[in-house]
Design brief:
By secondary structure, the protein is an alpha/beta fold. Helix content is 42%, strand content 14%.
C-alpha cells in the first residue's frame, strides 16, 4: 500500500521521534504549563515566547506560533463591548495639559485616573484606578457601590500615600462628572497638583488607563460571576497586584512589568 519495502517500514517505525519532534513536544508541554495560570491564557505567541525565555527556553516566535496553531491554542479574549455616547451638560473643563505625553521621564510626573464598572448579582460595583504613566503601574485603586467623587478622591489619596509626589504633578482624567465636581477640583488645588482632562468623547487622550481596563476585563473578569463587592475586591487584588503590576509584560516598558521597569529606573 505504501510502495516501500518491509525493511524500510520497520526501520522508520523503530527509529523514534526526531530531535525536532522531541523539542516540539517539550515546547508544547511548557506552553500548556504556562497557560495553567488563568491570567496567562490571554497571551499569544509573542508573550508566550517571553515566558519561555524566563524558563531558559529561547525558540523562534514563528515556531511557537505554529505549535500553538497546530494544537489549537489561542489567546482567550472576551469580545469588546461598546458604549453609547450620551450628551453632557456644560461643565468646568480643565485643559488637556498632558496632551498624550504618555511617557514622562521619571515616576510621579504624570498620573491618570478613570472609573469603570463591574456587574455583580447585587448590582454594579465601580472601580477607580490611578496609574503612574512612567511605568504604567496601577499605584492605587478603590471600589465602591456608588460612582461618586468620594470614590475618586479616596483612590487618589491612596496613591498620594503610596508615592508622596511633589507639587506640580499632573493628574489626567476624562470629563466624567466625578472629575468636574467642585469637591474634586478643590482637592486637586489643595494638593498643588495640575488638573488635566481629555477632549470630549476622545478616549485616545486617556488611552493608557483605558487599555488597562480593557486588559482587566478581557483577560480576567469576563468569566467571573460575582455576588458581592468583597469577591470583586479579591479578584481585582489578584489581577492588579498579583499579575498586572508584577508579572505582566508591557510592550511600552520594553517587555518588562511595571514593577520591573520602575526598579530598573531606580
Amino acid at each position: 500500500m505504501l510502495s516501500i519495502t518491509i525493511k524500510s517500514y520497520y526501520s522508520w517505525k523503530n527509529r523514534g521521534k526526531s530531535k525536532r519532534e522531541v523539542e516540539n513536544s517539550m515546547i508544547l508541554k511548557e506552553i500548556i504549563d504556562i497557560r495553567k495560570d488563568k491570567k496567562m491564557r490571554c497571551y499569544g505567541s509573542p508573550k508566550i515566547k517571553l515566558e519561555l525565555i524566563k524558563r531558559n527556553l529561547n525558540y523562534n516566535h514563528k515556531r511557537i506560533a505554529r505549535i500553538m496553531r497546530e494544537n489549537r491554542i489561542f489567546a482567550e479574549l472576551r469580545r469588546k463591548h461598546t458604549y453609547k455616547n450620551k450628551g453632557k451638560e456644560k461643565m468646568d473643563i480643565a485643559p488637556n495639559i498632558l496632551n498624550r505625553d504618555f511617557n514622562p521621564s521619571s515616576p510621579n510626573k504624570a498620573w491618570t485616573s478613570d472609573i469603570t464598572y463591574i456587574p455583580t448579582h447585587s448590582g454594579w460595583v465601580y472601580l477607580c484606578s490611578v496609574m503612574d504613566l512612567f511605568g504604567k503601574k496601577i499605584i492605587a485603586w478603590e471600589v465602591s457601590s456608588s460612582p461618586n467623587t468620594e470614590l475618586v478622591v479616596t483612590a487618589i489619596q491612596k496613591a498620594i500615600s503610596n508615592r508622596n509626589p511633589d507639587k506640580g504633578l499632573i493628574i489626567h482624567s476624562d470629563q466624567g462628572c466625578q472629575y468636574t465636581s467642585n469637591n474634586y477640583i478643590t482637592f486637586i488645588k489643595e494638593n498643588n497638583f495640575l488638573q488635566s482632562m481629555s477632549r470630549r468623547g476622545n478616549c485616545w487622550d486617556n488611552a493608557c488607563i483605558e487599555s488597562f481596563f480593557g486588559h482587566l476585563k478581557n483577560e480576567w473578569l469576563w468569566d467571573f460571576k460575582f455576588h458581592t463587592i468583597a469577591e470583586v475586591r479579591f479578584a481585582l487584588f489578584d489581577y492588579i497586584d498579583g499579575f498586572y503590576n508584577t508579572r505582566r509584560f508591557h510592550t511600552g516598558n520594553n517587555n518588562m512589568s511595571p514593577v520591573e521597569y520602575e526598579n530598573k529606573f531606580a
